[in-house]
Design brief:
This protein is mostly beta strands and 91 residues long. Helices cover 0% and strands 38% of the residues. The protein contains no helices and seven strands.
């Protein structure tokens, strides 16, 4: 991954919704997101700003994911994402 927030990380999963994608890294500590976000589905706290390169939506950048959590699963619907962090579901 060559986008600044995820430099040096290895992507292990890509999940997509309608016109956006989320990636997780092999260390289960980072999420990257890019695409349209008419409803804030990228989770980076920027509201409705469309992103053409991955932005970090984890590790203190996101108001939604606790910085000290380990991500165990991510899934997307048409305009939303869910992240599971050791038993806590973040919507």
């Amino acid at each position: 991954m060559t986008s600044a927030p995820l430099n040096g990380k290895t992507v292990n999963k890509v999940v997509c919704g309608y016109r956006f994608c989320i990636v997780t890294t092999t260390d289960n500590l980072n999420l990257g997101a890019w695409g349209e976000q008419a409803t804030g589905q990228l989770g980076d706290g920027s509201g409705t700003t469309t992103r053409s390169t991955p932005v970090s939506c984890y590790r203190g950048n996101s108001p939604y994911l606790p910085a000290a959590s380990t991500i165990t699963k991510v899934t997307c619907g048409p305009a939303h994402c869910f992240a599971l962090t050791l038993g806590i579901v973040i919507i």
